[in-house]
Amino acid sequence: MSSGGPANPVFPKLTLILGGARSGKSSWAEGFVDLSGKAPVYLATGRPVDAEMAERIARHRENRGDDWRTIEAPLEVANALYDATAEDCVLLDCATFWLSNLMMDKRDIDTAREDLIRALRGCGPSVVVVSNEVGHGVVPENALARRFRDAQGVLNARLAAAAELVVFVTAGLPSVLKGKLPELPA
After folding, report:
1. Which residues, in sequence order, are CB contacts of 157 under 8 Å at separation 6+?
2. 136 catalytic per annotation
3. Is 16 exposed, middle or buried (0-12, 13-18, 19+ CB in 10 A)?
């Protein structure tokens, strides 16, 4: 639920939340957005490609509650960021699905990545980006998986360089890699 209180003046303009699959990063990010004091906007990149994914998307939407405005943008994330205002705090969940969507649609990943970085720097709202850290496992056995892993690593590095705050979440617990968590209201 959104705090509905005044905006936190020290809330970062851009935050990157990294973690492995099922690490608790999305739940942690949702709670973090609530601390912003701004209107929460969920920028969804997942596609309901099968029944399990459709169910997962519906469950996530239900868990967020009615306070969140949802923008579906599986490909055009950069453009969607410009639709939000300085009164919003956008949760982009997640950069990994977005990258996968780009690859499946045979889009120019380098151009899309740089468009995203430019939009993150130039848009009005604070943005929290969730992304998977995929470089901790074994080297994938096929070329497509290696290409994805490499592209995800480059994307995460570009996002981390642009972010004021980078947090790695493991088992639902945050570790700050860059910056400082904002002070909690008393």
Report:
1. none
2. no
3. buried
Mind listing the pLDDT tens digit for each residue in 63-97?
888 899 999 999 999 999 999 999 999 999 999 99
Phi and psi (nearest 5°) for 87? -80, -5
Token pair listed for 98: 């977005």
Question: Which domains are seen in the chain, by residue range?
Answer: 20-178 (3.40.50.300)
pLDDT digits (tens, 9 = 90+) for 55-64: 988 888 888 8
pTM for the full model? 0.92
Burial 125-138 (b: 16+ CB within 10 A, else e): bbbbbbbbbbeeee
> What's the average model confidence in pLDDT over 157-171?
97
**Distance between CA atoms of 130 and 17, rounded to whole angstroms?**
5
Q: Is 181 helix (H, G, I), strand (E, B) or coil?
A: coil
> Annotated catalytic residue: which of 60, 95, 128, 133?
60
- 2 SS3 class: coil
